[in-house]
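Cytochrome b-c1 complex subunit 8 (Capnodium sp. TTI-000886), 98 aa
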Amino acid sequence: MEYNQELKHPNHLPVLCWGHKRLPKQEGVAIYTLSPNRTRPSLHFYSKGSIYNVIRRTRHQFLYVVPPFLVGYLVMDWANKKNEHLNSKEGRVETEEG
């Protein structure tokens, strides 16, 4: 396709993008929105039972979240200590002997 908008040949069509003169009318698109006054995102934030619900949901997800972070922390701690040791005088002497 060519970018010339003024093509006179019947078998050539212009590229349909922003800024061109002969864009087809858009039809059949429905847009729905909700008023900000109707959303009320913090309606039940302080209501009865909400704190207990947060505690219950956190307790049920504890074993899915904490062990991977704990393993990651321990691996990073081990790697940092190993790196510091290998870059010290004692570590360099050990690697040269071995």
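The chain is about 50% helix and 0% strand. Residues 78 and 85 are 11 Å apart (CA to CA). ok done for today
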